[in-house]
């Protein structure tokens, strides 16, 4: 007797597995992925499932939800589905405001005994480090004109893979097109041999910048509560209104009095708090 061919996966079960996955993603990182995003999600998981030897996404989902593979895979899944769009000197108006107004005024308003205290900047959705190292270039350059400026930069992200890129601080040379020529000369080391066509951020900036994994959905953040400037740009748009409000409230609790919160230009309308006043497009100051 010939064996019967295996029954195809039931569409309902496939949909159920996808729903389970998107619920987990929302619970862990606050990002909602409707059924219309299924093709995108499956595309982002393709490299991981193929690395594990699964020929189809259904086989991978079966491994996750029917064979107990989810716990070991969760970080890989979150890394795959998180968005990592980033550029050096992105939304440059914010950086001009930082250099021309925010930093000088913050130092000026400090008591003389605290002028040299660390000026703390947090890049809260750091991705591969482009924003954090843009900040480092600008603050290092500004320190030549403001001798009291002593700065430190923290970059956080939930994605472990992009954080490794940030820590290495090695980038394709074409990614540096937005960087001003004088900064390229001063702050980038040209690669050679196996690193030809790549550049690395100079050691003095890497020493001022550290990166750590952090989930914005966590109820508490392991971050200082006297941050001078927080960059939280182009991440709130992925959260629902309740999560947006919770994240903003946590950010405020980590700002120093008079500190600044900068969000993406499309996100200004979601920042609503009596503890903040808007001072420029997508720029808010703590009361």
UniProtKB/TrEMBL annotation:
Enzyme class: transferase
SUPFAM superfamilies cross-referenced by the UniProt entry: Chemotaxis receptor methyltransferase CheR, N-terminal domain (SSF47757), S-adenosyl-L-methionine-dependent methyltransferases (SSF53335)
Annotated catalysed reactions: L-glutamyl-[protein] + S-adenosyl-L-methionine = [protein]-L-glutamate 5-O-methyl ester + S-adenosyl-L-homocysteine
Record domain CheR-type methyltransferase: where: 17-287
Signal peptide: none
Molecular function via GO: protein-glutamate O-methyltransferase activity
EC number: 2.1.1.80
Binding site for S-adenosyl-L-methionine: 84, 86, 90, 131, 157, 215-216, 233-234
Coiled-coil positions: none
Keyword Transferase found: yes
CDD domains per UniProt: AdoMet_MTases
GO BP terms: methylation
PROSITE patterns with a match to the protein in the record: CHER
Domain of life: Bacteria
Keywords: Methyltransferase, S-adenosyl-L-methionine, Transferase
UniProt xrefs under Gene3D superfamilies: Chemotaxis receptor methyltransferase CheR, N-terminal domain, Vaccinia Virus protein VP39
Methyltransferase recorded as keyword: yes
UniProt xrefs under PANTHER family: CHEMOTAXIS PROTEIN METHYLTRANSFERASE
Role summary: Methylation of the membrane-bound methyl-accepting chemotaxis proteins (MCP) to form gamma-glutamyl methyl ester residues in MCP.
Protein name from the UniProt record: Chemotaxis protein methyltransferase
